[in-house]
């Protein structure tokens, strides 16, 4: 068999990778004074010296190109009970900041309320990888805020127990169909 015949389809890869539990964040920025943001589960630390973090953003998203242009962003790590915030920023529909409690950080980025952690950073480097950009950010400040349980995305739903509600297959929800980023 050839490599192409063995390679998984996008759906097969998505389902297989859902076995890897990840936290959920919202990446926020300001573009010409307008707040933008998107839900993101591909976030990690990269280096302690210099302090670097990484996230991946879909090329088809609307928020990431605007955040990239501004040069600065905040990663807001969601708490377990913030599914509404995840849904708001994971959807391509609606105005994400309408009626939402948020402030502008000293770094000029939207800071969401009630999150576990905020990481403020500037765009350090961007690498194209398939249909996504791999974004390296130089950390400007970390703000540990709440001591709650994190939101976990696992097997297409929130939480790791058997009672988590799958969201991958439901049309129009915040997940894959809306192309985070």
- Structural class comes to alpha+beta
Whole-number mean pLDDT: 87
Helix content: 10-25%
Which outline best applies?
Answer: globular
Please describe the biggest sheet, giving its number of strands, its sense, and whether it closes into a barrel.
7 strands, antiparallel
Residue stretches low in confidence (pLDDT < 50, at least 5 long) are 168-181
Strand order of the largest sheet: 3-2-6-9-10-5-4
Please give the domain count. Answer: 1
What is the name of the CATH architecture? Roll
Q: What is the CATH topology descriptor?
A: Pnp Oxidase, Chain A
Helix and strand sequence: HHEEEEEHEHEEEEEE
CATH class: Mainly Beta
Give an overview of the whole structure:
This protein has one domain (3-170): Electron Transport, Fmn-binding Protein, Chain A (Pnp Oxidase, Chain A), CATH 2.30.110.10. The chain is 15% helix and 40% strand. It has 181 residues and is of the alpha+beta class. The longest helix is centred in the first third of the chain and has 8 residues, at 10-17.
Task: Give a nutshell description of this structure.
The chain has helices at 3-6, 10-17, 63-70, 83-90; strands at 22-23, 25-31, 34-40, 43-48, 51-58, 72-77, 102-104, 110-112, 117-129, 132-144, 152-154, 157-158. It has 181 residues and is an alpha+beta fold. The longest helix has 8 residues, at 10-17.
What's the layout of helices and strands?
Blueprint: H1 3-6, H2 10-17, E1 22-23, E2 25-31, E3 34-40, E4 43-48, E5 51-58, H3 63-70, E6 72-77, H4 83-90, E7 102-104, E8 110-112, E9 117-129, E10 132-144, E11 152-154, E12 157-158
Antiparallel strand pairs: 1-11, 2-3, 2-6, 4-5, 5-10, 6-9, 7-8, 9-10, 11-12
């Amino acid at each position: 068999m050839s490599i192409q015949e063995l390679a998984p389809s996008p759906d097969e890869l998505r389902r297989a990778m859902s076995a890897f539990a990840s936290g959920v964040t919202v990446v926020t920025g300001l573009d010409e004074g307008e707040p933008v943001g998107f839900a993101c589960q591909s976030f990690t630390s990269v280096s302690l010296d210099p302090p670097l973090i990484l996230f991946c953003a879909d090329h088809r998203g609307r928020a990431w190109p605007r955040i990239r242009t501004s040069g600065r962003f905040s990663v807001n790590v969601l708490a377990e009970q913030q599914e509404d915030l995840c849904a708001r920023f994971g959807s391509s529909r609606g105005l994400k900041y309408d009626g939402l409690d948020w402030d502008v950080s000293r770094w000029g980025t939207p800071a969401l309320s009630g999150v576990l952690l905020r990481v403020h950073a500037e765009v350090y480097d961007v690498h194209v990888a398939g249909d996504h950009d791999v974004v390296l950010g130089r950390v400007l400040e970390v703000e540990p805020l709440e001591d709650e349980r994190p939101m976990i995305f696992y097997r297409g739903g929130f939480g790791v127990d058997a009672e988590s509600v799958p969201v991958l297959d439901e049309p129009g929800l915040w997940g894959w169909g809306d192309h985070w980023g």
